[in-house]
Write a structure and sequence with these properties.
single chain, mainly alpha
Length: 165
């Protein structure tokens, strides 16, 4: 396959799956503009490193890995500092009484280490199979399963025992 043909396949893949790519980036940063920046940076990285894509059948896995790594890098660089209105902030602060505040699922997912967060997002929000996730994360299938179950266990503890994805 020539570089031009490979470039055209990558271009078509990116265009056809743009909503999924945006959704994946957004699941990390939860901000429209930042997610769009991540997708744009990911496309640029993919096009610059198109020679590293040896097998076109791995295109989805290859590009998802680029998006995930770009998202994690973005979070590390920006440390997710968010300014909140005082009324909104008061809603999220613990009450003076011993009221238990239910933690939102997305907040619980955001609190997970990036390895676990990636697994949850890919499995339940992107509906990928375990073997696809293992390929994207470059891990053994059994390692992926173990980490996914560990992530679910952490979420159950954070959100409550009734939690089901």
């Amino acid at each position: 396959m020539t570089k031009k043909e490979k470039f055209k396949l990558v271009e078509n893949f990116i265009i056809e799956n743009r909503e999924a790519h945006y959704r994946l980036a957004y699941s990390y940063v939860r901000n429209k503009e930042n997610a769009l920046d991540i997708v744009q940076d990911s496309i640029l990285k993919a096009l610059k490193s198109i020679d590293r894509l040896e097998e076109i059948s791995y295109l989805k896995t290859w590009f998802y890995r680029i998006i995930i790594n770009t998202s994690i890098d973005f979070i590390r660089k920006h440390q997710r500092v968010t300014v909140m209105d005082e009324d909104v902030l008061n809603v999220h602060l613990p009450q003076l009484e011993d009221d238990v505040i239910d933690m939102d699922l997305q907040d619980a997912i955001d609190q997970l280490p990036s390895t676990y967060k990636t697994l949850i997002i890919l499995r339940f929000f992107e509906d990928l199979k375990i073997d696809e996730i293992a390929a994207i994360t470059d891990e053994n299938i059994n390692t992926t399963k173990t980490r996914l179950y560990r992530a679910l266990k952490i979420l159950r503890i954070e959100v409550g025992e009734d939690f089901r994805l």
